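Supplementary Methods S3. Input chains for the assembly prediction are listed below.
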Amino acid sequence: EDQVTQSPEALRLQEGESSSLNCSYTVSGLRGLFWYRQDPGKGPEFLFTLYSAGEEKEKERLKATLTKKESFLHITAPKPEDSATYLCAVQDPGTYKYIFGTGTRLKVLA
Amino acid sequence: DAGVIQSPRHEVTEMGQEVTLRCKPISGHNSLFWYRQTMMRGLELLIYFNNNVPIDDSGMPEDRFSAKMPNASFSTLKIQPSEPRDSAVYFCASSSQQGAYEQYFGPGTRLTVT
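Predicted structure tokens for the full assembly:
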């Protein structure tokens, strides 16, 4: 069965303290891995799509990387406005359905 | 672009009542997804449509749930009769094509069934 596991569940950082979030997955034949940011009371906001091992994408203080079994979301010198829940999802190759992880709740303290 | 539009944003209803949630996808997108999010189970896919046709409804919890997409710009998710365990945030999302393409989510409808 396809699975997506995110760690840690929650993370508290001081402003400027860089860290990484992990998304590990088990799916045969990855079509795509997606990262989203979700603020309280809002819908998930699309950040990145990664398709193949070795691929990297960046946006401001965020960089997403992909290996054959996991993806990392690196946050460099975070600011309080980066506080949110970060979700990753993989697409089931047979059904096109997205399988979401339970997310990492990030809190960046000023 | 206005993004995905959902209504109502909040719905409070009594057990046994019918509830209808509405969604307008991004113009030009031809895949539409309905999700439910709870603290216990996270984000779960209920059903998705491609070109207005339901493709996979295996996530619909039971026969009390039904979804329609009468045209490319409108979809509904109906719960009849509603139960307290249906309380959750329901999201609609759309994407430009079926396949490994990013989905864009609406703001959600917070449903409370008392």
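Chain A has a mean pLDDT of 93. The CA atoms of residues 62 and 75 of chain A lie 5 Å apart.
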